[in-house]
Amino acid sequence: xxxxxxxxxxxxxxxxxxxxxxxxxxxxxxxxxxxxxxxxxxxxxxxxxxxxxxxxxxxxxxxxxxxxxxxxxxxxxxxxxxxxxxxxxxxxxxxxxxxxxxxxxx
Amino acid sequence: xxxxxxxxxxxxxxxxxxxxxxxxxxxxxxxxxxxxxxxxxxxxxxxxxxxxxxxxxxxxxxxxxxxxxxxxxxxxxxxxxxxxxxxxxxxxxxxxxxxxxxxxxxxxxxxxxxxxxxxxxxxxxxxxxxxxxxxxxxxxxxxxxxxxxxxxxxxxxxxxxxxxxxxxxxxxxxxxxxxxxxxxxxx
Lengths: 106, 187
Prior knowledge:
The complex is a heterodimer of chains A (106) and B (187).
Chain A: H1 3-16, H2 30-36, H3 45-79, H4 82-90, H5 94-105
Helix pairs in contact in A: 3-4, 4-5
Chain B: H1 2-12, H2 18-29, H3 33-54, H4 58-75, H5 85-107, H6 129-134, H7 138-149, H8 154-161, H9 165-185
């Protein structure tokens, strides 16, 4: 088949596609039949809840853990690990912190 | 009785009466079957029209429509009101139709032989598009009927069916290529 004829037939097929339809309409009792045969509704359920609850829970847990870590570090400083805590809080570089730590342990 | 009257009034409201539909959906989610019946009546013609694109026999169209509403009922608790209910229901319908097509193909042991399309060498014979579509795989037929039958764009199909745009493009390309081969080679 020549390409031109092929293209024409394909175009004709495409034009006729909207007419491809069963032409079926619901009768007056369709809704009643559907409702009479309805299955039980699914619960929102664990998987559905998990998609929503778990990320929030994880974020909260991380925030709490970070808060606890900061609090613990602060408590540690007041108990006597002053050089390390002070260096971290003051933003000193690592070497200074190490040197100060060694000096305090002598 | 009052409840039935209330839902009947909601049902006869204009289809785009968003507040009434929201109320019907909310009640249906709580298990109110009369409210769901009203929703069915609001959307049944649309669902039948979509299913009628994919299936030819009345019983298949009605089965697909019923399955659509059954699925919608079961999954209503997970419906999020971000998208209009009509769009969500359209997606449910298309997925039901597609699943049914795939199942038919698997279970069909020996189908009645499909009459071949018009001979490829005779361009004067009108294109019998029904027979051409019957020779396509269900997935190909499905995509072409949405593209050329419903006149939807690629993005629209992707949104409504829940496929990615790339997936729709690939399916459309393959379907058109296979259709071309069928028209070219004939029986």
